[in-house]
Amino acid sequence: MLIGIISDSHDHLPRLEAGLERLRKEGAELLIHPGDIIAPFAAKILASWQGPLHVVYGNNDGERRGLKSVLPQIVDGPLLVECKGKRISVDHYPPDDEHPPVDDVDVILFGHTHEVVNEHRNGTLYLNPGENCGWVRGESTVATLDTDSLKAEIIRLEA
Q: For 5-16, how does the pLDDT look when each residue is reduced to its tens digit (9 = 90+)?
């Protein structure tokens, strides 16, 4: 199965729409957003995803009630997503002592830093798709994750 990942969209509606469209074209069947959607009006675009959608709050998601009304599945991380026999830990924050990932997982997925990370460490894939908004790093990215090979691809969106 191909999973689409989009993080740190920060209310940039055109880039959020472009990211979702690109993930649809790539054939993603499930979508994960590791936080920082920001406002309910942006959450409505995310909620348009046709298929399973997993979302965690980010540190800038202050309007939690409004986000929850649009995305009832949104939770604080870490969240465990099990897909095709693979275990994926989803949190907004990179793993550290304060934000430990779920134990015994195949993938540790996070956002927050706006920096792309796509590397295997001790048999676990660490993946940050970077920022969808493009405001901090100047580049808008999303990612796909193949559950069969546990390989991720970072996709750069046109400005």
A: 999 999 999 999
Which H/E stretch holds residue 61?
none
The domain made up of 2-156 has a fold known as: Purple Acid Phosphatase; chain A, domain 2 (3.60.21)
- Judged against a pLDDT cut of 70, whether residue 159 lies above it is answered with no
Burial profile 38-76: b = 16 or more Cβ within 10 angstroms, e = fewer? bbbebbebbeebeeebbbbbbebbeeeeebbebbeebee
Task: Please state the domain extents for the chain.
Answer: 2-156
Specify the amino acid at residue 12. Answer: H
Which tokens is 17 given? 């729409």
A 10 A CB-CB count for 112 gives: 20
Residues 65, 66, 69: CA angle, nearest 5 degrees: 85
Question: Does residue 6 contact residue 142 with C-beta atoms inside 8 Å?
Answer: yes
